[in-house]
Amino acid sequence: MSGFCILCLSWLDQTNPTVGNNDYNSPTFKKLLDSLQQQSWELELIISGFAIFGLFTAYEPIRVEMINAQNEDSIYKFVVYFILNIASSILLFNLLLHVILRGLWIGALGLRYVSGDIEFEKLRYSERFTKYLQKRIVSFDRYIANLENYCSVLFAISFLLIFYVLAMTMIILSIVLVANFVLESEHLPERVGNVLGAILIMIIIFGMFLTFIDFITQGWLKKKKWISKIYFPIYWIFSFITLSFLYRPLVYNFLDNRFGKRLILLLAPIYIAILLVTSLEYRHSNYLEKDQRSSDKFANKENYLDMLTEDGDFPGEMTIPSKVITKPYLNVFVPFSENLENRVFAYNDSLKLENDRRGLTSSIQINTNWSDQITSSRQKDSIRKVYLKTINEMYSFKIDTLEMDEDFIVTTGINNILGFETFLKISDLEEGKHIIRLRRKRKEKDAIVTLTDVILPFWYFKD
User: Fold this and answer.
1) Are residues 323 and 182 both part of a single domain?
2) Which one of 65, 220, 335, 432 has the fewest CB atoms closer than 10 angstroms to its CB?
């Protein structure tokens, strides 16, 4: 960090000392900007280096947390980490490309110092090749200038693209907020909420479509006089929804520059190509796949604790210690998820609170009440007992043809994941292969049906 500060200070010392004068109309300030932009490549490389190091460090933890949120059915947490993953990927790709081009640019400058411009006459090529190369290359200085332009624009557009990701997120968030607080509002009559929510969502989608059309056509809707009158209020509203007022000068500085336009159009197909390439996979079999769910014929490693050895490995809907069990008991762990709690509420609706506490919340608590209905520790403990009793009533086990109904307790398992744990007595089982099934009761109208959620194979051999 101290080295970074020294580099920044030495860089500032080389510029105009009147840094404090920020009157943009002042000739002194314009002179300062001209001086800064001539030497900006130094800070570009410093920032790119630190950013790439930080992104490489943070990328894997972000990906792991995204997978964890997906496994826990935590939609808010998943969206946050998914956006961070996309932003990190875009920024990492652009900054790596920027560093490569800057390296090429520095190399070209060094070569120019040694050999100057290209002298086509000394190459002694035929007249046809000489004219062609002179037309295509023109001069070595032009090549260096083009590299400089690409590097500068690419560095700026890297951070602009992050704002575009943020803008898309804000639009999706707006639709979600309308759905939660208008369509499903308990403070509005159902009919009014449905009509008002549908109108607001249609307005947001229509505005999003027009904004996207204006973006890909690089301002076509703003150029047509009669269309611009209709589009202006939508543009004004969406400038707040997408937070474009934060980065609008960058956008229009790109659009009024032919070179910037070309680079934006060039990057779009590159991103699409990268997306397609990363989605490719080679199939080795017509029938077998690695990511199948466990069954009586397939054992997925997500269901066996001793096989979850990597940071990105998370348990499936049910886990047991190993494929081979040598002890007279079987430890079973069922991870908690929001979907599991929804099933509990559907089975025992008395547990469902009027004000659902799930979702995004602050760690700063003014009081510790769950709701207006639950005001004491005794009530909380009582509710938890009913909750766990419902879990034990819903879930049971079957090993081969043997019915088992052991009680769960709440615990934390691998990677500190919250879940339910129990131990099944298996000392009476014969040695060899067995199939364990996690069974769940579900209410359907006036009847209760039993479903099989998970099927796992394991082998039992006495120690």
Assistant:
1) no
2) 432
